[in-house]
């Protein structure tokens, strides 16, 4: 069943989402719901060898694709704060990055490596640093807001 909610983010403003698994979680942009706050106590989970069955059952190919760092020199370094306002599932197509949870989060200060071929879960409510080591391209559903409040 396709999503029928009206999105307010610029890329979907005023249009009904037609993807089977909507990539934009409702209300995730404006506030921390009780479910999101409860999820903040969950750790990041990385599956380094997801099965084709898992990827198909999750509908990964229908998710949006997000890229970061393309076109930058090979020796670049890119770090920025990130806030997951909703649970995010991601399948990394290319690249490598680390997520370093902030103080007070599960695994605080301990970098979690996520690289091409990994299926990862990031809990809603978590805040941390996104540290890109190699340009990233990933399919994702859910997610959050960057440190400056933009999508």
From TrEMBL:
Residues 57-139 form the (S)-ureidoglycine aminohydrolase cupin domain. InterPro entries: RmlC-like_jellyroll, RmlC_Cupin_sf, UGlyAH_Cupin_dom. Coiled coil: none annotated. Pfam families: Cupin_3. This is (S)-ureidoglycine aminohydrolase cupin domain-containing protein. The lineage of its organism: Eukaryota, Viridiplantae, Chlorophyta, core chlorophytes, Chlorophyceae.
């Amino acid at each position: 069943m396709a999503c029928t909610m009206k999105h307010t983010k610029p890329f979907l403003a005023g249009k009904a989402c037609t993807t089977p698994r909507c990539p934009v979680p409702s209300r995730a942009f404006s506030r921390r719901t009780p479910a999101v706050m409860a999820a903040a106590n969950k750790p990041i989970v990385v599956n380094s060898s997801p099965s084709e069955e898992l990827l198909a059952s999750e509908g990964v190919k229908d998710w949006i694709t997000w890229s970061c760092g393309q076109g930058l020199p090979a020796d670049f370094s890119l770090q920025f704060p990130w806030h997951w306002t909703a649970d995010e599932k991601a399948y990394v197509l290319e690249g490598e990055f680390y997520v370093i949870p902030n103080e007070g989060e599960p695994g605080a200060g301990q970098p979690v490596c996520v690289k091409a071929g990994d299926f990862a879960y990031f809990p809603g409510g978590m805040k941390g640093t996104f540290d890109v080591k190699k340009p990233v391209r990933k399919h994702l559903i859910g997610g959050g807001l960057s440190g400056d409040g933009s999508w």
